[in-house]
Write a structure and sequence with these properties.
The chain has 450 residues and is α/β, with parallel strands linked by helices. The protein is built from 15 helices and twelve strands. The strands form two sheets. It has a six-stranded mixed beta sheet, with helices on one face. Helix 5 crosses helix 6 and helix 8 packs antiparallel against helix 13. Bound molecules: guanosine-5'-diphosphate and magnesium ion.
């Protein structure tokens, strides 16, 4: 789709409804012509703003700022015109309609960025970083995407490795194709070092990208038998009465979620139905969902009722969540303690809490903060912003491991093949590729107008 439309002039309203200024962005061969038609101006100067009236036929419909960029001095590398209009509502929409009537087509998601990448105005990773920058609230994601977008940090990290792989590949090709004419041999020590440094760069990127991904979608699940006080705790943490609190067990049958702020990061908090054996069909479904939620959450806060002895259901919950990061909480500390230290075998630090009085809440909050702070991304390291890149890098790491196995063998052809695959993988990661399907998929996930 993106490739087929490459010769068309695209346009969009780049500002959200409600803004006091609306920006219509036009990019492509027809951009300046459309601007001339609307303004009745016959000449523009590259990157010189001008104040102009817009006409629909002979009627003046707007008085606005026109910003022309001549190719290649624009975001997309094509001729671009931006119109700064009054508001981003009906007036701007009508003017966008007029632009379309004069030959432009509405832009697809990410189509401006796609063209920028295609015209080498930025690398794919830079485009992905810019898209993150315009959509995220997360301060770490902002810092990382700034570095990737404006310093091209990710690509620079990998780019330095490519010439050495290129040299090894050329040497191997010569050895395979002209065995009699090549006097020297490949320096296997050098390749071994190269494998090590490439693997280490990729592993650092992978770890940092995973940490970023975890941070931006960080999810905390409140889990426990019915009636232990999960919904009460949920309301306390999000600081409003969102979940229904009731003495009737099984009230929260599905789950509800809210975002709340932990150390300046927006995290998702989920109040679940709880996991228990039940005959009630509706409740059953809620319980199934809770099990799935366990899999997808980053932290499970296990809530117990301290006024009751530890039950088999409690133990089942502890078992079912054993592989997750967990915080143990015994709630209702204002009542007679019947749970005693029966949780101490499962956790070194069980937090004693009372939702009624707020006792223990500060301790719980700081434990949650500590958990979140574990494996925070390193803002000085590079990151990938797409699954596609993470997948390639994963594959590259295993190819590098495979190549190490052939280091001491005389199977030059297999060695050559592996080196070529690695070289291609690295080139893909720095954006040197033309796979149309990948382009479609990546840019299809962008926001409109970018
Ligand atoms: N005494 C006491 N009761 C509590 C406390 N926290 C919650 N409850 C009560 O326990 C019952 C169940 O609470 P709820 O939050 O709905 O539990 P959930 O089923 O786990 O979501 C309600 O009647 C709450 O008022 C607490 O710290 N102390
Ligand atoms: Mg509940």
């Amino acid at each position: 789709m993106y490739f087929e439309r490459i010769n068309s002039t695209i346009c969009t309203l780049a500002t959200a409804k409600g803004s006091t200024i609306g920006i219509v962005r036009i990019s492509g061969k027809g951009a300046l012509k459309i601007a001339s038609k609307l303004t009745k101006k016959h000449q523009f100067e590259d990157r010189k703003i001008c104040f102009a009236k817009l006409y629909d036929g002979e009627n003046v419909i707007e008085q606005c700022i026109v910003l022309p960029f001549f190719s290649p001095h624009s975001f997309t590398g094509e001729d671009v015109v931006e119109l700064q209009l009054h508001g981003a509502e009906g007036n701007a929409e009508q003017i966008l309609g007029l632009v379309i009537k004069n030959g432009a087509v509405p832009a697809l998601r990410g189509e401006f960025s796609f063209r920028a990448v295609l015209n080498s105005k930025m690398t794919l990773n830079q485009a992905l970083a810019v898209n993150t920058l315009v959509t995220t609230q997360n301060p770490v994601a902002i810092e990382l995407s700034r570095k990737a977008a404006f310093e091209n940090k990710t690509v620079k990290t990998l780019e330095t490795l490519i010439p050495s792989w290129d040299r090894s590949y050329t040497m191997l090709t010569a050895i395979v194709d002209f065995p009699d004419q090549i006097a020297g041999n490949l320096d296997f020590n050098e390749v071994s070092e190269l494998i090590k440094s490439t693997k280490s760069a990729l592993n650092r990127l992978k770890t940092n990208s995973e940490s970023l991904k975890r941070l931006v979608s960080y999810t905390i699940l409140l889990l426990g038998r019915p009636n232990v006080g999960k919904s009460s705790l949920f309301n306390t943490l999000v600081d409003r009465d969102r979940a229904i609190v009731s003495e009737i067990p099984g009230t929260t049958r599905d789950y509800i979620s809210e975002t709340y702020n932990v150390r300046g990061f927006q995290v998702r908090l989920i109040d679940s139905a709880g996991i228990r054996e039940t005959e009630n069909e509706l409740e059953c479904r809620g319980v199934d969902k809770s099990r799935k939620l366990v899999d997808t959450s980053d932290l499970v806060v296990l809530v117990f009722d301290s006024s009751q002895p530890l039950s088999d259901e409690d133990r089942a919950l502890i078992r079912e969540t054993s592989i997750k990061s967990r915080v143990f909480v015994k709630n209702k500390s204002d009542l007679e303690d019947k749970i005693g230290d029966s949780l101490s075998g499962f956790s070194d630090s069980v937090i004693s809490l009372c939702c009624r009085t707020g006792e223990g809440l500060a301790e719980l909050k700081s434990r949650i903060e500590e958990e979140l702070a574990e494996n925070l991304p390193d803002v000085n390291e590079a990151v990938f912003f797409s699954e596609w890149q993470s997948d390639i890098s994963e594959k590259l790491i295993s190819q590098l491991e495979e190549l190490s196995l052939y280091l001491d063998s005389d199977q030059v052809e297999i060695f050559q093949f592996c080196v070529r695959e690695i070289l291609n993988g690295l080139k893909n990661l720095v954006g040197d590729f033309t796979d149309q399907d990948v382009f479609e998929k990546i840019f299809g996930g962008f926001c409109l107008g970018k």
